[in-house]
Specification:
- This protein has 300 residues and is of the alpha/beta class.
- The protein folds into 2 domains: 1-31; 34-299, Metallo-dependent phosphatases (Purple Acid Phosphatase, chain A, domain 2, 4-Layer Sandwich).
- Helices cover 23% and strands 23% of the residues.
- It contains 7 helices and 15 strands.
- It has helices spanning 4-28, 69-81, 106-113, 128-132, 135-140, 146-153, 201-205, and strands at residues 35-41, 52-57, 63-64, 86-89, 96-97, 102-103, 122-124, 162-168, 171-177, 214-217, 231-236, 264-268, 271-275, 282-283, 293-299.
- β8 and β9 form a beta hairpin.
Length: 300
């Protein structure tokens, strides 16, 4: 039988443990040194002679104190040091939380990303927050968004239902990028009852003019069930791995598929998807069990 003193010791210990976990999740893990999450795979029909390294950054969510221009610049240095053939940015550059000490606007985070360098180029897509926080684009129902202009000013092409053919060691491949699937928010001010995506997967793939392999950039992974086997690899962000992840499970995932596409390498019907845990935070500045990460993906 537990005594009164024992009960209060237990209660006090529980409060201390909860406070320690909260401090770690809010004040430590979001600010931890970024880890490099490495993948090595050869998708079906990928040419044996094509060795390609892709470095991917997702969900930067620039804001103070969590993701300052100085921290973004350090991420750029880390990405470049991985010796990528190509660098891809998977969307959500603007803050996704109101719990900030100060905003970091496009005039700061755009130049910080301009230092990204790779022999075959740097390519990007936009995320939902890049649209949601741009009230002019929301009202108009179209871009260009502030985020797109900032990326282009930094010399980084933005792919919204576009495709570009690249070549390495005499082997061709395609980078295709989708416009955001949740770009336009519902609201009486804009006359929309539901979220409206601007993505056009068939229209994007029709721009691919030969049988070279395709790498698809799509901010939200929910498009994956519709992606044909023609696409060798789909890269996504958005979920942040749930931001809280225990024993391979996230209690809250911003996806209609729940944990199915929450994080990591997913293979379905010989089709490959990799979902990044991302770098910043959305809604609340909390990370637990999902350290900020840069992806390094070796194909072939």
């Amino acid at each position: 039988m537990i005594t009164r003193r024992g009960f209060f010791r237990f209660l006090g210990g529980s409060i201390v443990a909860a406070a320690a976990l909260g401090t770690y999740a809010v004040g430590i893990e979001p600010m931890l040194l970024t880890r490099v999450k490495r993948y090595a795979l050869t998708p079906p029909d990928w040419p044996d002679s094509l060795k390609l390294r892709i470095v991917a950054l997702a969900d930067i969510h620039a804001c103070r104190p969590w993701m300052t221009p100085e921290r973004i610049a350090s991420l750029v240095e880390e990405a470049n040091a991985l010796q990528p053939d190509v660098i891809v940015l998977l969307g959500d550059y603007v803050a996704g939380t109101r719990m900030v000490s100060n905003w970091v606007d496009a005039a700061e985070w755009g130049p910080a990303l301009s230092g990204l360098k790779a022999p075959l180029g740097v390519f990007s897509v936009l995320g939902n927050h890049d649209w949601w926080e741009d009230l002019t684009a929301q009202k108009a129902g179209q871009g260009p968004t502030i985020a797109r202009r900032a990326l282009e000013a930094a010399g980084i092409p933005v792919m919204e239902n576009d495709a570009v053919r690249l070549q390495k060691d005499g082997q061709g491949f395609w980078i295709a990028g989708l416009a955001d699937q949740l770009a336009l928010r519902p609201g009486k001010a804009w006359g929309r009852k539901n979220f409206a995506g601007l993505d056009d997967l068939p229209g994007t793939l029709v721009k691919i003019s030969d049988d070279a392999p395709v790498i698809l950039l799509a901010h939200e992974p929910d498009i994956f069930p519709d992606v044909p086997k023609r696409v060798a690899l789909t890269l996504s962000g958005h979920t942040h791995g749930g931001q809280v992840r225990l024993f391979g499970y996230s209690p809250v995932v911003p996806s209609r598929y729940g944990n199915r596409y929450a994080y990591g390498h997913v293979v379905e019907d010989e089709r490959n998807l990799i979902v990044s845990g991302g770098l910043g935070c959305s809604i609340a500045p909390i990370r637990f069990g999902v350290r900020p990460e840069i992806l390094s993906i070796d194909l072939g």
